[in-house]
UniProtKB/TrEMBL annotation:
Entry keywords, A to Z: ATP-binding, Lyase, Nucleotide-binding
GO molecular function: 2-methylcitrate dehydratase activity; ATP binding
SUPFAM superfamilies: 2-methylcitrate dehydratase PrpD
The keyword Transmembrane helix belongs to this UniProt entry's keyword annotation: no
InterPro entries, per database record: 2Me_IsoCit_deHydtase_PrpD, MmgE/PrpD_sf, MmgE/PrpD_sf_1, MmgE/PrpD_sf_2, MmgE_PrpD, MmgE_PrpD_C, MmgE_PrpD_N
EC number of the protein: 4.2.1.79
Family, per entry: Belongs to the PrpD family.
NCBIfam families: PRK09425.1, prpD
Domain MmgE/PrpD C-terminal as annotated: residue spans: 355-532
Originating organism: Podospora bellae-mahoneyi
Limits of the MmgE/PrpD N-terminal domain: 81-338
Segments traversing the membrane: none
Name of the molecule in the record: ATP-binding cassette transporter CGR1
Length: 561
């Protein structure tokens, strides 16, 4: 029974207990109406506290007596104001944040290029109407496409996220803040090309890569700070809601909207329909999880453009009684915040360096790689394993513990810790191709039997460390028992290679990953040019966006129809 229906039933029951038994429901109705007409108007706070005892209509009638008229001044929810203020007024002076953003930028573009190798991704890309080319539009890296900024944001966002290989942020809510690059790069490229052709978008702004990096830092911060203490997955919502909000905020500023207009656009992102996590979980796991971020990016750009055309906002979109986000979708809870907006998230973001695997499994896969080598040195293999215990953290158990669930498709496999560890233990590798239907790994009887022998057990200390702002570790420990009764020492990995605590160790591997993703698309000379440019911060940051994006255009891509 919904909260509204419960309130209605309770109000009706309360009314009946006050009425004489001889009064029929029909004669009671005027009294009910009279009761609400003569009652003193409730304040918004009192209404919120007592709304569970009233019907929906009662709440609306009471609110009508206290709410300002549409023409009057309406203050924005403070959560909205804080984001708009941050985007417009907070300078970013952290060189660590800019340096990290540069690595994230290169890594994210590389992940997008790698996604183009998969037909399930490329079939969704390109113009809505085949053959359409938008003059001065957004160019999509690795393709010949030139699109409007809304569709361009979808294309770039979808290819970035397709393989679940770009950066990651883990907290009460998890997500991938570099997903926002889909919206940021699409808008920066379109505005720059339009203005160079004589347009006057955003006051004639010509964006540089430095501008893109700053927008990335702020989008990371908005998404990450909202995620620190607020779990959207626990109410069934997908984390891409935060991509939509963060992208809307930074894109609004890029488009030249003022602070109030930016607040309007942010409210539109919150009132917009939010994605359910259904497509990430059995029995409905499917490829939408790979383009959900692209969808969030295109919605963000579309909403900001509507505000640019004069559309207003929804000032109390979060807090409005009955109809606001908190009451409708967040069980009446308000957002909590651990820290003010700055550059913390970019400075502490996690890179997926070694494996294209859901991040909660990264340390488990690394431990599996060590165990694979240990078994080989012993003259044994994965076939000699009787069982494995994976000591882990709560988020891992909730998201990717799928010991006995069927592996029906790519989306099932790349979000199953047992499958990913088994592939590493059997083959000594884990690549994106190992998730594909019909692949060697996906059809391996040994992988299938081994994954059912891996049991996950939550360690409360690992969970506490996961949420500790000073640690933010993603710990996993694997204990293997062999068929002959031998129990191998537990292999524990607390921080994956892409963690802040291992950042310097990771940088050469990040660059090697970027190079590996460039090579299928470009000549050796072009690959070398991009590598050298990526490692020259001053030259890269000063480069105009359209000129940089042009380096990635592939007019005759073998991966795009």
């Amino acid at each position: 029974m919904s909260a509204v229906n419960r309130g209605l039933r309770q109000a009706t029951k309360s009314l009946h207990t006050r009425l004489p038994q001889r009064i029929s429901q029909r004669s009671a109705l005027p009294l009910l109406s009279s009761t609400f007409k003569t009652a003193a108007p409730l304040t918004p706070a009192a209404l919120h506290a007592r709304r569970s005892n009233f019907s929906t209509m009662a709440s609306l009638q009471s609110a009508a007596t206290t709410a300002p008229s549409p023409a009057g001044h309406k203050g924005y929810d403070p959560e909205i104001q804080d984001i708009a203020d941050y985007v417009h007024n907070k300078p970013i002076d952290s060189e660590l944040a800019f340096d990290t953003a540069r690595w994230v930028f290169l890594d994210t573009l590389g992940c997008g290029l790698e996604g183009l190798q998969f037909k399930e991704c490329t079939k969704l890309l390109g113009p809505i109407v085949p053959g359409t080319v938008v003059p001065n539009g957004t160019k999509v890296p690795g393709t010949p496409y030139q699109l409007d900024p809304v569709n361009g944001a979808f294309n770039i966002g979808a290819m970035i996220r397709w393989l679940d290989y770009n950066d990651c942020w883990l907290a009460a809510e998890w997500g991938h803040p570099s997903d926002n690059l889909g919206a940021i790069l699409a808008v920066a490229d379109w505005i720059t090309r339009t203005n160079k052709a004589g347009g006057n978008l955003a006051g004639g702004k010509i964006f540089t890569i430095r501008d893109v990096l700053e927008a990335m830092i702020k989008a990371h911060e908005i998404q990450g700070c909202l995620a620190l203490l607020n779990s959207f997955n626990k109410v069934g919502l997908d984390h891409v809601v935060l991509v939509k909000v963060a992208s809307t905020a930074v894109v609004s500023k890029m488009l030249g909207l003022n602070e109030k207009q930016t607040a309007d656009a942010i409210t539109q992102a919150w009132v917009d329909g939010q994605s359910l996590r259904t497509y990430r979980h059995t029995p409905n796991t499917m490829s939408r999880k790979s383009w959900a971020a692209g969808d969030a990016c295109q919605r963000a750009v579309n909403l900001a453009l509507k505000v640019l055309k004069g559309e207003s906002g929804v000032p109390t979109v979060l807090s409005a009684p009955v109809w606001g986000f908190y009451d409708v979708l967040f069980k009446g809870k308000k957002f909590e915040f651990q820290r003010p907006y700055g550059s913390y998230v970019m400075e502490n973001v996690l890179f997926k360096v070694s494996y294209p695997a859901e991040f909660h499994s990264q340390t488990a896969v690394e431990a599996s790689e060590k165990i694979h080598a240990q078994l080989k040195a012993m003259g044994k293999s994965a076939a000699d394993i009787k069982e494995i215990t994976c000591r882990t953290h709560e988020a891992c158990v909730r998201i990717i513990d799928k010991q006995f669930k069927p592996m029906d498709n790519f989306a099932d496999r790349d979000h199953c810790i047992q499958y990913m560890c088994s592939v590493m233990l059997v083959f000594g590798r884990l690549t994106a191709n190992d998730y594909v239907d019909g692949s060697e790994a996906a059809t391996s009887p040994l992988v299938e039997s081994l994954r059912k022998k891996i049991k996950c057990v939550e360690d409360p200390q690992f969970t506490a460390d996961y949420h500790d702002p000073a640690l933010r570790t993603i710990s996993n420990g694997l204990t293997v028992e062999l068929n002959d009764g031998t129990v191998l020492p537990e292999v524990v990995i607390e921080a994956p290679l892409g963690h802040r605590l291992r950042r310097e160790e990771a940088k050469p591997v990040i660059m090697a990953k970027y190079k590996r993703h460039l090579e299928p698309h470009y000549s050796a000379e072009k690959v070398q040019e991009l590598l050298e440019l990526g490692q020259n911060p001053k030259k890269l940051e000063a480069m105009e966006v359209d000129q940089y994006v042009d380096l990635y255009v592939s007019e005759n891509s073998k991966f795009v129809n």
